[in-house]
Specification:
Family: Belongs to the sigma-70 factor family. ECF subfamily.
Shape: elongated
Structural class: mainly alpha
GO molecular function, one term: sigma factor activity
Keywords: Sigma factor, Transcription, Transcription regulation
Protein name: RNA polymerase sigma factor
Oligomer: single chain
Helix content: 55-70%
Largest sheet: none
Order of helices and strands: HHHHHHHHHHHHHHHHHHH
Number of strands: 0
InterPro entries: DUF6596, RNA_pol_sigma70_r2, RNA_pol_sigma70_r4_t2, RNA_pol_sigma_r2, RNA_pol_sigma_r3/r4-like, TPR-like_helical_dom_sf, WH-like_DNA-bd_sf
Length: about 400
């Protein structure tokens, strides 16, 4: 096997096996630092040996065995005399089963990294590092944070896991639904940052982040196949990601949904997303937030032309969502659909009362600007565009809003 093929095999093993290796070591040694460092050392050994020795028949098993040896070596080196008995006990008892609703080390690792005792930014960074295998520089670049700050965030999170005794287990049956929602919130945050970056100095779209969020959502879906909201979030991500090739023009300007080239959308992702939505509908169970959002996106991606969109169905789905989530952002998004069904004046009457809650949200002002534009109220539209531009952090959005404002004359 040539060097390029070996390199691809190592990269594939990293994508597919990193979480499994780290999770296995965390269960055995009870320490995230030991697990992370030993896994990284195992992959470094693979980079050194596989080109000459060849790729092993079972790369995951080889990496896990190598990482376990590295972890044992580290514990033996670092253990003081008084700690040797404890370390030896840890090595003997490390394979004892850990109770939980689902028996999978990777799922235990995900729940540990997404524990509600950790701040959200710490959950995101820890999950991307320990489960996703992203490096500290990669995570820092993704969220426009200094590498040192990102490293400190991960270090503090691991220290809190150890100091507070956050359990390495899947929550019990009764606690599982609430804890799953926290995991999904982390994955959705990662996806959204890649789907439309919030920082003004970054690329407007970052496919590597959306791809990582989808990969982790697939993993959670494999581990919790009966959870409707897990399926809903995966479907939502797939249907949203399918539109990415058509979302930004060659000049770097955001292209809104109604003017996108639908021939550029990814049909495979759309088909998979639609299948997941249909499967959830077939269960007859009441849908959750992510399932309804996925259904809304399924309606949009079912229309061959924007003019064919079934807006009455979109509004009906938003009516369901409002009953679950009364946030002003959901109400704003519903008003956008109402504008297509009942006209801009009806929609504006629903949008204006949201001003106090959404005064700092650029999409509120952008929505008002478009509605006022359609009503011929140019001065008000221009003012709303100015407010939206001042608040928008994404370069593609800023370019689009600026052009729309300037077209007013």
């Amino acid at each position: 096997m040539n060097r390029a093929a070996v390199g691809e095999a190592i990269a594939r093993a990293h994508r597919e096996e990193w979480a499994r290796v780290v999770a296995s070591l965390t269960r055995r040694f009870g320490d995230l630092d030991v697990a992370e460092d030993a896994a990284a050392e195992a992959f470094a050994v693979a980079v050194e040996r596989w080109p000459s020795d060849g790729v092993p028949p079972n790369p995951g098993g080889w990496l896990t065995t190598t990482a376990n040896r590295k972890a044992i070596d580290r514990i033996r080196r670092e253990s003081k005399r008084d700690d040797k008995q404890r370390a030896a006990q840890m090595l003997r008892d490390g394979d004892a089963p850990v109770q939980g609703a689902v028996d999978d080390d990777r799922l235990r690792l995900i729940f540990t990294c997404c524990h509600p005792a950790l701040a959200m930014e710490s959950r995101v960074a820890l999950t991307l590092r320990m489960v996703g295998g992203l490096t500290v520089p990669e995570i820092a670049r993704a969220f426009l944070v200094q590498e040192s700050a990102t490293g400190q965030r991960i270090t503090r999170a691991k220290a809190k896991v150890k100091a507070t005794g956050i359990p390495y287990r899947v929550p019990s049956e009764e606690d599982l639904p609430a804890r799953v929602s926290g995991v999904l919130a982390v994955l959705y945050l990662v996806f959204n940052e890649g789907y439309l970056a919030t920082g003004p100095d970054s690329d407007p779209l970052r496919p590597h982040l959306t791809a990582e969020a989808i990969r982790l959502a697939r993993l959670v879906r494999t581990l919790l196949p009966e959870d409707g909201e897990v399926a809903g979030l995966l479907a939502l991500m797939l249907l949203t990601e399918a539109r990415r090739p058509a979302r930004v023009s060659t000049s770097g300007e955001l292209i809104p949904l109604d003017t996108q080239d639908r021939a550029a959308w990814d049909p495979a992702l759309i088909a998979e997303g639609h299948r997941l939505v249909r499967e959830r509908l077939a269960t007859g169970q009441a849908p959750g937030r992510y399932q309804i959002l996925a259904a809304i996106n399924a309606v949009h991606t079912s229309a061959r032309d924007a003019r064919d969109t079934d807006w009455s169905q979109v509004v009906a789905l938003y009516d369901q969502l409002v009953r679950l989530d009364r946030s002003p952002v959901v109400a704003l998004n519903r008003a956008v659909a109402v504008a297509e069904l009942d006209g801009p004046e009806v929609a504006l009457a629903a949008v204006d009362p949201l001003g106090q809650a959404l005064a700092g949200y650029h999409a509120f002002h952008a929505t008002r600007a478009e509605l006022l534009r359609r009503l011929g109220r140019t001065a008000g539209s221009r003012e709303a565009y100015d407010q939206a531009i001042a608040l928008a952090g994404n370069t593609a959005e800023t370019a689009y809003l600026s052009r729309r404002r300037d077209e007013l004359g």
